[in-house]
Amino acid sequence: MATILFLEQCLNGLQLGIMLFLMAAGLTLIFGVMGLINLAHGSLYMIGAFACAAVASWTGSFILGLVASVVCAAVAGALIEVGVMRRLYQRDHLDQVLATFALILISSEAMRWLFGSYPLYLDVPEVFYGATNLFGVLQYSRYRLFIIVVGLLTAIGIYLLINKTRIGMRIRAGASDRQMTAALGINISLIFTLVFALGAALAGFAGALVGSIQSVDIGMGEPVLILAFVVVVIGGIGSIRGALVGAIIVGMVDTLGRGYLPQLLQLVLDPVFANTLGAALASIAIYVLMIIVLIFKPQGLFPAHG
Amino acid sequence: MGNYMSEKYLNRIMIALLIVLPWLAHWLDEPYYVSLATRVAILALAGVGLNLALGLGGMISFGHAAFFGIGGYVTGILASHALNYEPIFSGFISIPGTTQMLIIWPLAMLIAAIVAVFIGLLSLRTSGVYFIMITLAFAQMIYYFSISWPAYGGEDGLPIYMRNGFPGLNTLQPIQFFMICCTLLLIVLWGVSRLQNSRFGNALQALRQNETRVASIGINPLGIKLTAFVISATITALAGSLFADLNRFVSPTMFSWHTSGQIMIFVILGGLGRLYGPLAGASLFILCEAVLGGWTEYWQFFLGLLLLGVVLFARGGLIGLLTREQKNV
Amino acid sequence: MKKQLITTMLSAALCLVPHVEASPVKVGMITTLSGGGSGLGVDVRDGFMLAVNNANNSDLEVIIEDDGRKPSLAVQIADKMIQKDKVDILTGIIWSNLAMAVVPSSVNQGILYLSPNAGPSALAGKGCHKNYFNVAWQNDNLHEAMGNYANSAEHQNSFILAPNYPAGKDALTGYKRFYEGQLAGELYTKLGQTDYAAEIAQIRASGADSVFFFLPGGMGISFMKQYSQAGMTIPLMGPAFSFDQGILQAVGKSALGVRNSSQWNKDLDNAANKTFVADFESAYGRLPSLYASQGYDTANLILSAMQSADIHDKDAFRAAIKSAQFDSVRGNFRFGNNQHPIQDIYVREVVMQGDLLTNKIIGVGLKDHQDAYAADCAL
To answer: Disulfide-capable partner of B30 in A249, B25, C267, C379 (CB 3.0 to 4.6 Å)?
Structure first.
């Protein structure tokens, strides 16, 4: 029984990691290619979730909702890039932090204006309800399995896009030498807008996928944003592979910490105290992890080249 | 330069306004405006602290809320122990609580300094975005710990039932408490301006521009940066202590990343690396919060628009906009 | 002489009529109207203003400001309302941590505070104050009722969970205060946590026969969706917050059948409640929530005190508030010695009415219930 529970918790950790990866991939792409700190990434995640909830309830189709989330977030991302970010590439990181912080305020209140103050309804389709049997011993939520599969497919897709396609080559070129790439006659502005929209679309997609098992709410993006930053930093800024590995590590540490730390402490401490301390430690586990990683590898696990 | 005033002149006007307006409000019997000015002075002080690391040292700390909160919690914890006569620590030596600001401030600054040495030593191994994120991680750790640790109220926070005392003054009087905060702000501003022009300050600014070159003339970059980081943290902790006394309350939100972001906004809004920038930034921000909040429940939308406008169209912040003086940042 | 006599008689006659010279009362409402969790503040405000508009009493003036759920901003607004606007009464705060920031210093300055939502234990026991009234509940109350209900529903082995912060600990303590069975497990989750897979796996493995949870706001929505999506069938119980009218539609059918505790529901059979529900729906075009009912009661309590006492006679006005001579939408309502409610707490079940999720009362969890801290209060 204990082994099965452990197995299930590992799967949960993997699934949380995959969700974080979808968020972190866009963030690290934008970081890596354009050197831009985007605090508003969480807002794009929120926009995706709201778009999915709205469209799914109008049309009754979850799939259409997912499409809407990707489209809306990408459009919002492109607008933000053209309207705001483009002026900030040459600036200090600080100006970027301030501007994107302002964007958080604007988009949260705009969403509240449009959709009201209460959380929206968004549910997974009937087919994903319930659990499925894995390896004959383990009951596992179908929707969570679906997230794992979709997340892994997305990871492969991004990898192929960046490394195997023409547009990916241009993105990589733009990241390593902006002026040179422009001199070669490549429309670098367009590339940057595309990358930003792609990152935004990933965030929106993650928001919709996750929103259907969580709460579609104003401010839903902020806790995820911080987690995604932790992932990106652990993995190494700009590295998609690092983001994937970092996300899975963070997901595992967080899930297993919540599941087992209080119990482990109960072996040596008074149960009530162990429960309090265990819960407190579990909530800071990933930050401790990040600090340890940075002490030994100041550039993250997979330092990007350039 | 033309018709624009010089930065020095503008700074003097700001200080004059900061001192005169609260007294005017006091005479007109409008104590609310006195507490609003106190808030501005305290938050500006926190900003001056951060500006030392951020503007002069180029160390983008996204975790100064940790020090702000430590200042606040030291104040709250000492006061609460003094109030119920329980010693904070009783072992071979018993340490009682206190309600004396003159004891609380140095203690708050000392504890913040110790934490800052620890955080600084680990964080300064990294740079750039990694530094931003590792400082954020430290602050988040303290934040979650303060929420879940029940001893001092957890997320409910810790009320300070009586504002702490200062010899010879009645701190409950808004104008007297304001004068304490304002005087501290002026002293710190003076100290930081001396520091800026000292050998240490020059080395720090040189480090921001070119670390290798400074190291090559025999100056230890880590030592200089760490010192600046620690001084910056202690100033912010002092502000945190005053903030706790102003609100008569401390809570984990003082540790949250929103607080770090807000202090950073004061600095950038006013003008990065400008000595009086945080004062201008904090004034504008608090004013907006107070005025817009009364107009519409969507006030944060307009606050966001305003911030965005300043970033996009007013490089060098508010002071840069008013003086049109370029600053080499 | 004659004229003087008549005047004396007239004034004596006037004195016999119990008429109080009404001074205007200024109420400051600090509540959360922006950002996450603003739905609660909007409902308290709307409920409160509905009562104010219905009463049409020109002596009552209300100022409303948004605290953005930030303690320091709430303190700043309280300063402004006390020092500049010179309010007599403060109200409106939703969250315990904001209440703890504002209430102690305000009531010490002689301002009355009427809480329409938060009831931290620190203000109910030793920390009670003659100027502080709670019109909603002490934080533990709804959980206690659920613990008592678990006994009558013959649950023997509950798994209980709440976020790791004071209100969460109060919740589990409250449940355990009345629940007599065994505990299959006790868990504290991270505040603001959105993924509950690890917890749900533990519940599944624990062999529990019931689950009690207190996860306010988005946390509860996430938990319930994930719980039912994982195919879990162990019965859920909780306080009303996660099943309230505003939030219920977002939870969806995952909430169907869940038992929850509340001091109010829209189907309570009393005249005041029928008027309230009908008026609220016609004024705002939506069904009222628990929070709206608390705001409505708070306003009516103030209005009732204004009928019988002058705000400048603080002792008389306090006594008038404490006597609670108003028609509460919850039916029975009175204050205990610590000025927190003594009231019935009901058990509700989430049902589908047409295509709308809502609650119906299925029983009483605790009758005429007072909180556990009242004895520590010196009032």
So the answer is: B25
pLDDT at position C314: 92
In a domain, C5, yes or no: no
pTM for this structure? 0.86
Q: Is residue A99 part of a domain?
A: yes
Structure tokens at A120: 């929206």
Distance from CA of C43 to the nearest CA of A (A): 10
Pseudo-torsion of CA C104, C105, C107, C112, nearest 10°? -110
pLDDT tens string B87-105: 776 666 677 888 899 999 9
- Is residue C352 within 8 A of residue C256, CB to CB? The reply is yes
* pLDDT of amino acid A117: 78
Contact yes or no for A280 and B144 at CB 8 A:
yes
Cβ–Cβ below 8 Å for B298 and A113: yes
Band the pLDDT of C197: cuts 50, 70, 90: confident
**Residues 159 to 218 of C: which have CB under 8 A from any B CB?**
164-167, 169, 188, 190-191
The more confidently predicted of residues C192 and C338 is C338
Q: Is the pLDDT of residue A305 over 60?
A: no
Q: Name the token pair of C358.
A: 């809502």
Q: Verify whether the Cβ–Cβ distance A108 to C194 is below 8 Å.
A: no
Residue B208 clears pLDDT 90, i.e. is over it:
no
* Minimal C-alpha gap between B54 and chain A (Å): 9
- The count of structural domains within chain A is 1
- What range does the domain containing A78 cover? 2-296
A280–B145 C-beta distance less than 8 A: yes
ipTM rounded to 2 decimals: 0.85
Give me the pLDDT at residue B328, please.
Answer: 44
Residue B324 region, left (φ>0) first, then alpha (ψ -120 to 50), else beta?
left
**Residue among C33, C40, C44, C221 with most chain A CBs within 10 A, to mutate:** C221
Can you give the residue range of the structural domain that contains C86?
25-137+268-335
Q: State the nearest Cα–Cα gap between C39 and chain B, in angstroms.
A: 12
How do beta strands C210-213 and C236-239 pair? parallel
Q: Does B269 touch chain A (CB under 8 A)?
A: yes
Question: Can you spell out the DSSP letters for B74-95?
Answer: HHHHHHHHHHHT--SEESSSEE
